[in-house]
Each structure stands twice: as C-alpha cells, then as structure tokens.
Amino acid sequence: MTSAAEQRAPAGEPAAGSGQPAAVNGARRPVPPTPVVWPGTPTPLGARFRTGPDGVAGTNFALWAAGAEAVRLCLFDEAGRETRIPLTELTHEIWHGFVPGVMPGQRYGYRVDGRWDPWTGARWNPAKLLLDPYARAVDGEFALPPEVYGHVRDWPDQSVADTVRDERDSAPHVPKGVVVHDDDDWSDDRRPKTPWADSVIYELHVRGFTKQHPAVPEELRGTYAGLAHPAALEHLVKLGVTAVELLPVHQFAHEDHLLRRGLTNYWGYNSIGYFAPHAGYAASGTRGEQVGEFKRMVRALHAAGIEVILDVVYNHTAEAGELGPTLSLKGIDNRGYYRLQDDARRYADYTGCGNTLHVVQPQVLRLITDSLRYWVTEMGVDGFRFDLAAALARSMHDVDMLSPFLAVIAQDPVLRRVKLIAEPWDIGSGGYQVGAFPPLWTEWNDRYRGAVRDFWRGALPDVREMGYRLSGSSDLYAWGGRRPYASVNFVTAHDGFTLRDLVSYRTKHNEANGEDNRDGTDDNRSWNCGTEGETDDEGVRALRRRQLRNLLTTLLLSTGVPMLVAGDEFGRTQHGNNNAYCQDNEIGWVDWSLLREPGWRALSELTARLIALRHRHPVLRRRAFFSGRAQTADGLRDLAWFTARGTEMTEGDWYTPTATLGMYLSGRDIPGRDERGAPVVDDSFLAVLHAGERPAGFVLPGPPWAERYEVVVDTSAEEQAGEPGTVHRAGERITVPERTVLLLRVA
Questions:
Q1: Whole-number mean pLDDT of the chain?
Q2: Is 223 helix (H, G, I), strand (E, B) or coil?
Q3: Alpha carbon 708 to chain centroid distance?
Q4: At residue 670, does pLDDT exceed 60?
Q5: What is the pLDDT, as a whole number, of residue 183?
Q6: Which of 242, 418, 499, 680 has most Cβ atoms within 10 angstroms of its Cβ?
Q7: 629, 648, 649: which is closest to 639 by C-alpha?
C-alpha cells in the first residue's frame, strides 16, 4: 500500500522534458526542436531583451530557484505550442541563459523540477507552468481549474490532499509572462515632488473610477488610459488633490471561492506579479502594451501636478496556503519564499490570506526591493502604501522595527526618497504597530478614523482623543524626528463604509458577497441618522449631508496628511456593503451621475474649497508639532483649546463629557522658514466643532487671541456663501447650530 505522498493523479499530458509527442485534440504532433541557448548572465533577474554576443538580439532569462534540480524555460508561439528549453547554467542559485532571437512580445513561463516532499515544505512539480516572479507583463487570465494546483485539489481525503502530487499539465490554464522592451528614459517627465506636509491623497480604483464616467470614451473606461483621459484628470485638478493612491495594480489573481460564486477579486489584494501592471486594466493590449499604457497614465497625472502612489501587497501572494494553487513562487522554491510553520506542510499566516512572504530571506527581500525600484525608476511612480506593513517588518516571528526590510529601505538611495506609507498592522500576535514605524515612514492612522467617527456620532466620553487627532497625533508620532505628516488622517478608506454609508447605515449589508453577511467588520462606528438605509425623508437626508460636511471639514482642517476616497466628496454609496472587495459592478464603481444632483454637487464644491483653503494656509499644514507654549509676552500660543464659555480648557475640562470643542491655530508662530529663508506667517483661525443635537452658545475668545472673527466655513449651510463671511466681535456669544463646524478667521 502506497503512502499519500506516493500516490499520483491520473496523468494527462506527458511530464516536462519527457520527449514524448504532445496530444492536441486527440492528434499527435512532434515536439518542436529546442532552440539554441547561450550561457547568458545571472543578472538582472527576469527576462531582459538585449543585444547579446556578436550583436545578436535576444533575451536573457534568469530565475532564482535555489533548491531546484532542473529548470526549463517554456516559450509559447501564437498557436499556444510550447517549446521547452533546459537552463543549464547555475550561478549563485540563479538559473540563467540567453536565447537568441527571442523578441519583445514573446510569451513564456518556467517548469521547475525537484523533490515532492510537503512534510519538509518541498513542493516542486514540473507539470505546473510557473509565472516568472520578475515578469514585466502578463498575458491571459488566471482561472483556477484543478490542473493549476500542485496537489490533487479534489482528493477524497482533504486532510492529506496537499500531499498528493497532481501530474496534469497546467500550461493551457494559466497566463504567461511576456518579454518587454524597456526603452523609456523618462527624460520628458516632470515629477511633482509635493512635500509631505502639502499633500492631499485621493484613494481610487483604476477600474472603478472611470467605469461609469460619461465623458470618458466607452472603450477607455476602467483602464489606465481612462484615468489619463482629460475628463478624469479635470475632476482631480478641480478638486485640488496632490496624489492619487491606486488600489493594487500589480498583476493579481482571483480566489477560487469567489470564482465558484461567480465573483472576482475586484480590489486586487491578491498579487502574483510584482513587476507587471494588471493586464485587466489595459485598453491597448496585454502583450506588453499594458506597460506603455501605464507609463502614459503616470505622465498625464504628473503633467496635471498629481503624484502616483501604489497600494502594494508584498505581504502575501495569490497562492494561498497548502490547499492553494501553484502559480509561481510555490513551485519555484516554496521553502525559500514563504514563511512555514514548524510543521512545514503549513504556512505561517500573518495576513489572513493563507501565506506570508518570508521577507527575512535575502532573495525575498531582493524581489521586493527590485520591484519597488522598478516601479520608481522605470514606471515613474512616486511612492507606495504597504498593505499590512507589519508583516513585512517581522524578523523571525515578532514585528521588529530594526528588521531587514525596514533597514534596507532606510539606506536605499532610490526608495528612501519616495513617499512610504505603512498600513501599520497585520493579524498576527503583536501586529498592531500604529505610531511605531521609524522616520521616513508615514502611517495610516486608524485612531484618527475612530476618534472622528465617534465624536460626530456622539460616542466619545470626552474630547481628549479628539484634541490629539486634530492637532497631528503628537502622542503617537512626536518621537525620533517624526513630523505631524507622519499621520495619514482618514475617516474612510476602500475597506469599510463609504462616507455616505457611514451616516446612512448602522450595520453592514454585505449579502451580495455571498457569505451570508458574515464578512466585513462589525465595528463600523457609524450612525444612520435615525433611519437605516436610503430614505425619502428630506429631514434625514439633509442631516446626513450635514454630517458629511462635518466629517470632510474636520478631516481637511486637521494637522497631518488628509486622505479622501474617490466619490466620497459627492456621496458615493455601496448600499451598506462595507467589504466590497468582490463587487466589480455598480456597488464598487464610482457613480458620476450623482454630480447632477444639487446637494451632492455642493458637497463636492465644499470639498474643493476646503482643499484650496488648506493649500493657501500653511497653519493648516504644519511641518512641526505644536508646542502649546506662549512664544511672546502677550501669552499667545501656537495652539490653544477653548470651552464653550470662551475660556481656555483646564486639565479637568479634557475629562468632562462635552459635545463642543474650540481649537485656536496661531499663524504667527509657525516654525521654520520658506524656501527663500523668510519666516512663515499666516492668518490665525478658530475652529469650533459642535456635535450636539441642539444648538449651543459659544463665547469667542477675546484679546490677545483676537478682536474680531470672520466666518469662513459654516457646515450648517447646504450652500456655502463664500468669503467674506459674517464678522463677529471677540467676546461675543454666538449660537452654533446643532451638529456644525464653524471655521473663523481672526480678522
């Protein structure tokens, strides 16, 4: 009786390198002759078209596969016929060879042979065609039939299924890498290089942003070219954002459980190609054309003054755990690329996605940093937001801020100069690391999100947390030379309710995801304004719009880097779905028709006005933390907090339940100098935030703070009157309407 490891699935096509004729529709065809292959070089990794010996054009192929016994390069012609070429040169664990005559547009993959011993983490299977981790372009869709699994997916005993090797050929069912000619020097491109303190980030989905845009030609909607279209750029420029943060654009695959339900991974947090722009977002083609289209998109955004930040997923891949498919790294060197448990059949999963890349390993660290540098130097991007960044900062087990990944980034001459944003957590033990990343890094500040949501729904016990969040979160970031812009402030992100849904739903409504509403967080910190979901009650609708104005105004007046989500500025809704990762449809797409409605158009105009106000006034985008101390004899401080009585807050006031908070920002005491060395001087402002359900009186602070105040923003008004606004005397008791932000300039 054989063991599970010795059992094999019924063979389909012959194994790699068998020399037998292959079957096509029942007929036999001869195996094509093997092309000549020259030794080539082990660097750079990947497939690089170049001129070889004697001026002969061809492509150098190099693949790191340390434990492999043999590597075959597989070339595919237009009819899908495969030619297998053994790579016999091995240098420092890299298999390599130069193949004359292989030109850009050539499709290829690898077959890697070695031991099949899942108990020790060895999962080599030459029947599986593998995607080059360094492929610059990918042609074809990832479907997940049984043939693409290294093990027998449907083995009767699932407890040992991952130990039974599947001998069927996966090549007909998987995409291929594409040889790309890198011939772009970016000499005509001008990066905006917006300082961190001046940045306003706009998170968007390449496909979803333009899929329903009426002014973008239909054939370009949902593509890189669509985002580069003047109609799409016009909205971004009018809004005033300085950077777009693109949801993942690395080539990704869809999970089997989604495909079985007729859904796909819309967000793309399931990467499988860290050098390839996702082919599904290309309008021009997938045989390398997607690379040029992406570059043209970046150039167009740069020309509009907008930086490009990529949301990158280096913490895990689309190969999932031991029961996942074999698409690339798992079949190249499973033990070399992934973190395995003590039981090496199993994967260490700090991501919730089945596997975790083993970033401590030099070759994995090289893969990630090579990818990052490529996107900066050859694709023109300006920065990265790292999904579950704490998983990358783990040494052997614990999160370590001296980890190899963070150390390499800190000294890299290319990467240390771009924008680096951490999602500072993962799901493993000790994974929550908000405020802990070193200088150079900014972080998504979810404590900001929680505090602002709770304040405006009346759930904060006092205003201590709001004070920290409004003024730059010094409690989290005032160490090690970090600055207020280390905090990326956000109220919503792609993950969770949209801003409109945050004020329209008490609970999630994720039924469309097909998981019986079990997926997605239950910690929404939302308030539906008294009615669940959409309503015809104009009073409720007006209150919701006011709450949106409050949330957006709070965000854009806070010290730190504000991040908006595409469509939030004009009321995009996902109808209560707080986990729309699999909704590649109207639920996940931006609905541009909302701008035809006066209420939503007014919200967009207010957002643009607030961003413009922020750009004009350096006191709203400080480069150093407030001191809270008097700088001159008159006692005026750079930051002061006031109660509704017009008195400065005492220690006890911070612990007293209240719905009203006054924040004074002095433009006279801004540290630093401008680019010509002159002192930075600005207007001073008083922001009054009142979350109560009834109007409240507020006494405007007198001298030395001000003699008069001019209303700049009043969120109680549907339409903003514009400047100049109503002028009030210092010491006057004004009435602040219920649930309102007033921004007053010291006149």
A1: 93
A2: coil
A3: 44
A4: yes
A5: 74
A6: 499
A7: 629
Instruction: Quick: pLDDT tens for 718-739.
Output: 887 666 689 999 999 999 999 9
Q: Which of these ranges, 186-190, 216-220, 573-577, has the smallest mean pLDDT?
A: 186-190
Q: How far apart are CA 565 and CA 244, in angstroms?
A: 10
107 contacts 135 by C-beta, under 8 angstroms = no
Is 423 among the residues known to form the active site?
yes
For the segment 42-63, what is each residue's pLDDT rounded down to a tens digit? 999 999 999 998 899 999 999 9
Q: List, in sequence order, every residue forming a beta bridge with 89; answer none if it has no partner.
A: 96
How many Å apart are CA 468 and CA 452, to the nearest integer? 11
Cα four-point dihedral sign 161, 330, 379, 444? positive
Amino acid at 267: W
How many CB atoms sit inside 10 A of residue 415's CB? 18
Cα(475)–Cα(170) distance, integer angstroms: 53
Catalytic residue chosen out of the listed positions 132, 147, 203, 423: 423
One-letter amino acid of 696 = A
3-state secondary structure of 260: helix
Judge contact between 340 and 348, C-beta under 8 A: yes
| 8 A C-beta contact, residue 280 and residue 207 | yes
Concerning whether 586 is annotated as a catalytic residue, the answer is: no
Q: What is the pLDDT of residues 361-401, one digit of tens each?
A: 999 999 999 999 999 999 999 999 999 999 999 987 889 89
370 neighbors 415 (Cβ within 8 angstroms):
no
pLDDT of residue 13: 39
Backbone φ, ψ for residue 639 (5° rounding): -145, 130
At 480, the amino acid letter reads G
Do the Cβ atoms of 552 and 606 come closer than 8 Å?
yes
**Residue 475 token pair:** 């409690």
Strand partners, 63: 95
Return d(Cα 690, Cα 660) in angstroms, integer: 4
Point out the catalytic residue in the list 139, 387, 443, 669.
Answer: 387
Q: Is 302 helix (H, G, I), strand (E, B) or coil?
A: helix
Q: How much is the pLDDT for 185?
A: 76
Query: If you average pLDDT over residues 565-579, what whole number do you get?
Result: 98
Q: What is the three-class DSSP state of 687?
A: strand
Q: How far apart are CA 529 and CA 373, in angstroms?
A: 47
The residue type of 527 is: W
